[in-house]
Amino acid sequence: MNYETFKSSTVASIQKHFGDDATVSLHPIMKNNNIRLDGLTIQDASVNITPTIYLNRYYDDYLAGKALSSICEEIIASYREHLPKQNIDLSFFTDYQKVKYQIIFKLIHFEHNQALLREIPHFRFLDLAVVFCCYLPDMPDGTATILIHNRHLDIWDITADTLYDLAIKNTPILLPYEITSMEDALNVLCRDMTTPCDGSGKFSYDEHPGRSSECSRTDSGKFFEMYVLSNTERFYGASAILYPKILLQFARSIGQDFYILPSSVHEVLLLSKESGARRSDLNRMIQDINASQVAEEEILSDHVYILDRDLGFITQ
């Protein structure tokens, strides 16, 4: 069964299960990095909001040998688990005076999201784009966001500049930053490298002409702690690099410039430039990790950035 047949068969089977009690439909949904998924919804007349269930991964299960009937049972169970118990009032979203305190920003890749960026207000930041959402922390199924589109600016009668001004104030308050050392970071980052690591979460580089830097513990080597920067919710936490003065204050507190490694859209890693790490090696490492360990829709970028204390800002 090819994917198109799988989709139509799944929708038909689930519609048969619910009969006239619900309407089952399929909608193409564009996610981050131009990832297009097929979202299945089961609309029950008793509630005004319903979970979206993506069929793409279920097709992988089907190809791996799982029966279509079992897949449909899983989808129905997931729907029931995440279905709100009552209607949710979303009328506030049309009221600018109510929504303005919930506007936040997040970072996505600029070139990889060109189709999406044509529909939403955004600002360029290096090779990334700053985009905006309405943050909903108290939804029945946890935290959620509503992506802000150009049409919303018309409804609210505001400009993109106003949106940015709101987000730069709200985001650090609603999603406070968090910088912590990550002792197991070295194991994660070295997994796809040929260099040994000791699991301490600290870098030591022994430079030798004609060979790559080695990531290892030595008796005389100088260790460099790796840190993770995100927000307290670990939710699009890479955008914390935009919080006013946070990175510059951190750089000055440790007395070092540092590399910013885009681990995902949810966090970045910080590594001192004095570690001796070669930029080309770090870029290759990020690319390998993106290819093997990060979900495609969660990839932020494929190269490091630099925080320079003297310049006072981030560069590529």
Fill in the keyword field for this structure.
316 residues; alpha+beta; 7-stranded antiparallel beta sheet; 4-stranded antiparallel beta sheet; 10 helices; 16 strands
Structure description:
This protein has 10 helices and 16 strands. It has helices at 3-18, 56-63, 68-82, 96-99, 114-117, 150-156, 160-174, 185-190, 246-254, 279-292; strands spanning 22-31, 35-44, 52-54, 103-109, 122-125, 128-139, 142-147, 177-181, 202-203, 205-206, 214-215, 224-231, 258-264, 267-272, 305-308, 313-315. Residues 191-221 have low confidence and may be disordered.
Please state roughly what percent of the residues sit in beta strands, choosing from under 5%, 5-15%, 15-25%, 25-35%, 35-45% or over 45%: 25-35%
Gyration radius (Cα, Å) is 23 Å
Q: How many DSSP-defined strands? A: 16
Shape: globular
Uncertain runs: 191-221
Helical amount among residues, as a percent range?
25-40%
Give the overall pLDDT as a whole number. 84
Give me the number of helical elements: 10
Helix and strand sequence: HEEEHHHEHEEEHHEHEEEEHEEHEE
- In whole angstroms, the N-to-C terminal distance is 46 Å
Class from secondary-structure proportions: alpha+beta
For the largest beta-sheet, the strand count, sense and barrel status come to: 7 strands, antiparallel
